[in-house]
Design goal:
The chain is built from 3 helices and 32 strands. The strands form 5 sheets. The chain has an 11-stranded mixed beta sheet with strand order 2-1-6-9-12-15-18-21-26-29-32, with no helix packed on it. The protein has an 8-stranded parallel beta sheet with strand order 7-10-13-16-19-22-27-30, with no helix packed on it. The chain has an 8-stranded parallel beta sheet with strand order 8-11-14-17-20-25-28-31. With 288 residues, the chain is mainly β.
């Protein structure tokens, strides 16, 4: 006897519906026929299986904050040659211009030579573990706490007091801001959570911006998996912890809150001091 076919994912709940043609940082996490939250279900396995650069062992070798600023540099090669080794350079040997990393403003020179794409971990950064992959032109400010496993794309800014609690996948040109906590979450390119935010088991689509104090709650008071309400009824997520998924270009105002299992369609807005109801919200919804 053949097994019944798996129910087809409604198109409005697919990754394409939330991200359009802007690919997330790990497209393999989002199969075409699966709901968009499948990216969260596969995130842990993807980061567990990833090969991490050997130089990260130097960063995670000692407990406590980094005593000195460190520059991470690998010369860029676009001719197909084997990449040059990653070099860890003491910050005192370099001239560092601390411009906004997400806008390409971070610059590092050594002996007058521009080290294009160099990343900077400021003194006072706390690193727990060894499984880290930092892209080019990344700035990590003093007081940030980075817990493995963690992947950060090119030209990101991890600001003072940020807490990345592990199993975080950050795209390119993103900001994890001051006193912002991120746990088991995905930032697509150009997503920003600049100030006092909490993101648990959530996905920020391309170009999403969270206002100061935004909280994406991820755990229901009642036990059990999170059910997703949408126009066709309800669908089981298979997740007991599930925060929010914000489609491309969504924005939240200051002190906005989303309930577990909130899905905001592309271009939606949650006004300041507003709690977004759980479930699916169509594109360009304004919640007030």
């Amino acid at each position: 006897m053949s097994l019944p076919a798996a129910p087809q994912t409604p198109e409005i709940l697919s990754a394409v519906a939330f991200f359009a043609d802007q690919a997330p940082p790990a497209p393999e996490l989002f199969p075409a026929a699966a709901p968009v939250w499948e990216g969260l279900r596969g995130l842990k396995g993807l980061l567990e299986q990833r090969d991490y650069p050997a130089w990260t062992h130097k960063l995670g070798a000692a407990d406590g904050p980094l005593p000195h600023t460190m520059v991470i540099y690998q010369p860029h090669q676009d001719n197909g040659a084997v990449p040059a080794p990653v070099t860890v350079i003491p910050g005192e040997e370099c001239e560092i211009i601390y411009g906004s990393a997400d806008k390409g403003g971070l610059q590092v020179r050594r002996g007058g030579e521009l080290l294009a794409g160099a990343s900077v971990l400021m003194a006072g950064t706390i690193i727990m573990g060894r499984r880290f992959d930092l892209g080019r032109g990344v700035l990590v400010e003093s007081g940030a706490f980075l817990k493995e496993p963690l992947v950060v794309g090119d030209h990101c800014e991890i600001r003072q007091g940020a807490y990345l609690r592990g199993y975080c996948l950050i795209g390119r040109r993103c900001v994890v801001g001051h006193v912002t906590e991120v746990k088991h979450s995905i930032f697509c390119d150009d997503a920003k959570a600049g100030h006092f935010a909490y993101l648990g088991d959530s996905i920020l689509g391309p170009g999403v911006n969270l206002g100061a104090g935004t909280k994406l709650a991820n755990l229901r008071f009642a036990a059990g998996e999170v059910q997703i309400r949408y126009p066709g009824g309800r669908i089981a997520s298979g997740l007991k912890k599930f925060g929010a998924i914000l489609g491309a270009g969504c924005q939240t105002g200051c002190n906005a809150v989303t309930n577990p299992g909130t899905l905001l369609g592309r271009g939606s807005v949650v006004m300041p001091n507003t709690t977004a109801p759980a479930g699916y919200h169509r594109p360009k919804t304004m919640i007030r």
